[in-house]
């Protein structure tokens, strides 16, 4: 879906406030209430928000797996910063696994100028942005397409990954805690991440600050399985810094 600038502002506002009224958006964005209602209906149709009387609420919650269209437009600055920090692990003559996350999508674009690089991913969005690159060998693991999330999962995907090997695996998560490690909403998503983990040497979590301290139903990787955690700012809970030490990468003065 192509988002208007107004719809992006609606999403950003909801990300901060979680609920909003039509009248409030109308005044904030200098648009008529009918235009705002039309925007809300379009955003509701792809699962980004839910219409309620007089306004809308953000759909994401404890048991909600965020659709790809929503992930692509949220927290772009934070994701780009994480990608810049994680780019220290990129080099020529290297094999990489990337999951389907939009943060990984920011990072993988930084590989286009490297040579002798092979990439395997279960992310439809990553395959799309890499389709015009002449320097990279790009492989899809195939499988069942979970279309709202732009990712391939299932037995076919896992069997394909089992026939590969990579130097690095870059992945994201729904939540990250010191007790549970990286967690997710979907067991299908976790199964693919674990297959990538088992067939790679280094495992690097790309995790924005909003996910720290949160836990969800399915565990993907234990804390001991993660070699580095790259985030966009210093965690508020300093225990993360104490426990992770040099394994935690974040912007520092």
Q: Can I get a quick summary?
A:
The chain has 253 residues and is an alpha/beta fold. Helices cover 36% and strands 24% of the residues.
Which short descriptors sum up this protein?
single chain; 253 residues; alpha/beta; Arc Repressor Mutant, subunit A; Rossmann fold; 36% helix; 24% strand
Written overview of the protein:
The protein is α/β, with parallel strands linked by helices. The protein has two domains: 5-59, Orthogonal Bundle (Arc Repressor Mutant, subunit A), CATH 1.10.10.10; 71-249, Rossmann fold (3-Layer(aba) Sandwich). It is built from ten helices and 15 strands. A seven-stranded parallel β-sheet has the order 6-5-4-9-12-14-15, with helices on both faces. It has a three-stranded antiparallel β-sheet with strand order 1-3-2. Strands 10-11-13 form a three-stranded antiparallel β-sheet. Strand 5 (117-121), helix 7 and strand 6 (136-140) form a beta-alpha-beta unit. Helix 2 (22-29) crosses helix 3 (33-45) and helix 5 (76-86) crosses helix 6. The radius of gyration is 19 Å and the shape is globular. The model has no long low-confidence stretch (mean pLDDT 88).
């Amino acid at each position: 879906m192509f988002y208007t600038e107004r719809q992006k502002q609606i999403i950003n506002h909801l990300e901060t406030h979680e609920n909003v009224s039509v009248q409030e958006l109308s005044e904030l964005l200098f648009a008529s209430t009918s235009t705002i209602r039309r925007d809300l209906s379009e955003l509701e149709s792809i699962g980004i928000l839910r219409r309620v009387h007089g306004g809308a609420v953000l759909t994401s919650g404890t048991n909600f797996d965020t659709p790809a269209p929503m992930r692509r437009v949220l927290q772009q600055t934070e994701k780009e910063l994480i990608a810049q920090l994680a780019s220290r692990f990129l080099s020529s003559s290297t094999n990489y696994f990337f999951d389907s996350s939009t943060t990984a999508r920011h990072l993988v674009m930084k590989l286009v100028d490297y040579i002798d690089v092979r990439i395997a991913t279960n992310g439809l969005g990553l395959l799309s942005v890499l389709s015009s690159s002449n320097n990279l060998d790009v492989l899809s693991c195939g499988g069942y397409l979970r279309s709202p999330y732009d990712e391939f999962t299932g037995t076919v995907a896992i069997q394909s990954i089992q026939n590969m090997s990579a130097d690095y695996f870059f992945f994201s998560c729904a939540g990250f805690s010191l007790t549970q490690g990286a967690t997710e909403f979907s067991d299908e998503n976790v199964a693919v991440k674990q297959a990538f983990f088992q067939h790679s040497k280094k495992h690097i979590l790309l995790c924005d600050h909003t996910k720290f301290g949160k836990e969800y139903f399915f565990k993907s990787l234990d804390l001991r399985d993660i070699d580095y955690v790259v985030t966009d700012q210093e965690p508020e809970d300093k225990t993360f810094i104490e426990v992770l030490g040099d394994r935690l990468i974040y912007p520092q003065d």
